[in-house]
Task: structure prediction
Amino acid sequence: MVIDELIQSEALLEGHFLLSSGRHSNRYCQCAKLLQYPDRAERVIRVITEQVKDMNIDMVVGPAMGGIIVAYELGRQLGKPAIFTERVDNVMTLRRGFEVKTGQKLLITEDVVTTGKSSLETIEVLKSFGAEVVGIACIVDRSANALPYPIFSATKLDIQSWEADECPLCKEGKPFVKPGSRKF
Result:
């Protein structure tokens, strides 16, 4: 069902992509294409809700940009507050009057988790306020279980990626596009 929703919303892309991690890939999952449809977002995120509904969570937190809508919808479905972190001068920050208190149990939300860089940056910010992160929730898990937190996903995708100097698409001379929001 989740893969069908991604395909029908044209969120699974083929080509040559520069990922926010700096790696290159021949496929990209642009979850914003899915999230533009509230009914699709509700159905896909319901898969995550079913996995985490019995957890002791006080709040969900999504790193900007990809995690904001996911946090909102997951928070709505769980009946929990949803906030977000954002980069200021390329440093993840908690702003806009959002507060995190010592001991609060938080769930990070993302659209796609690959290296987990945004999630880990967000976790460091939240831990500095004394919060406890209980896991990471995402629509698409591409991480290969490489993160030190449990991941709750709507689906897992195994998409190849390469370091820039090893990228076969670069060697073929194919130009890349950078669809993510992170600045290098």
Q: What stands out?
A: The CA atoms of residues 137 and 152 lie 5 Å apart. Residues 38-52 form the longest helix (15 residues). The longest strand covers residues 132-141. The chain has a mean pLDDT of 93.
